[in-house]
Amino acid sequence: DRILTVVCATFERAAPQGPARKGYASQAVYGQLLLALVFDESGSEVRDRALAASVAAVSASFGASLGALDERLARQLQVAELACRVERPAALQRLEAMGLMPFLEGVKQLEEAALASAPLPKCSSQQHLQVSGALQELGVRHRTEE
Predict the structure, then answer these.
(1) Apex CA 58: angle with CA 118 and CA 64, to 5°?
(2) pLDDT, position 77
């Protein structure tokens, strides 16, 4: 817990980062830290605080320019939010209290927009048709190949 306390203190007292810290390396570090905080079995108050502080640091660095987020970091942010919703209610409350939910919603919309504009690869397998039919029966909206 001492290491996590130092991580929290570092993120909580850090000023919003300038453009020099918005590179890929910082995104990889944020992403690895998020994954470590989300997937550790031993949940704790300080771990939840560190998770929220990490999301806040990403928001401070990239919140104004979501398009600069690496797709892996965007996905890791979504995984972190989902994990908080499902398993970490205290962390979710902390994210909400810090006003980070609009940032996370923006990340989610960024991913949805990318998926909507990406062309589907051509595939004529029977499995594809079966999955498409099952989704249609369930009422799930999806795009089929053109």
Answers:
(1) 70
(2) 92
Judge whether 77 and 34 are in contact, CB under 8 Å.
yes
State how far the Cα of 126 lies from the Cα of 118, in Å rounded to an integer: 22
Are 54 and 37 in contact by the 8 Å Cβ rule? The answer is yes
Sorted by sequence, the CB contacts under 8 Å of residue 121 that are 6+ apart come out as none
**119-137 mean pLDDT:** 64
Contacts of 128 (CB under 8 A, 6+ apart): 145
pLDDT tens readout for residues 2-44: 777 777 777 766 645 444 445 555 787 888 888 888 876 666 8
Condensed to tens digits (0 to 9), the pLDDT of residues 35-67 reads 888 876 666 888 888 899 889 988 988 877 888
Summarize the confidence of residues 95-107 as an average pLDDT: 94
Eight-state DSSP code of residue 71: H
* pTM as predicted: 0.68
137 in helix, strand or coil? helix
Residue 75 CB burial class (10 angstroms; 0-12, 13-18, ≥19): middle
